[in-house]
Amino acid sequence: GGAHFGVLEGELGALADKVWGWMKEERLSGQVKLLSAVDEESGESGDSNSLVESYVRKEVVGKGWAEQMRLEVDKIGKEIAGKLIQEIVEDSVVELTGRG
């Protein structure tokens, strides 16, 4: 019944988290390999570290920005929901009391 569905849903969520983590690791790993290959072509040993550092910095800043954006969207969504509930309650009171 419902309990079984909840367990299944939880397991799917955990699986999705694992897959997403794996994809992120592979993406970063692929970028590091690509940067290393570019460095080998140039023959400059110092550039690989700075390129990887630059990439990681962009990833961290990008994730920070994305997290901040998600928090802002959540905050705005909650504000909108609160205002809608307030309007619904006010309209219901007006309808029930005949005041308007």
Automatic annotation (TrEMBL):
Domain DUF4378: 15-91
Lineage top rank: taxon: Eukaryota
Signal peptide residues on this chain, from the entry's feature table: none
Entry-linked Pfam families: DUF4378 (PF14309)
Protein name per its UniProtKB record: DUF4378 domain-containing protein
Provenance organism: Opuntia streptacantha (Prickly pear cactus)
